[in-house]
Amino acid sequence: MNLHAIVSPYITPVNPWIVGSVKVSTGYTTDAAYHRYPTFATFDGVNMQVHALTAKEIEHIDSLNIQGIMRVVYMNGNIEGLDRFAGKGGDLLIFNGQTWLVTTVLETWDASGWCKVAVTLQSPQPDQ
Question: With contact defined as beta carbons under 8 Å apart, do 117 and 106 qualify?
Answer without folding.
Answer: yes
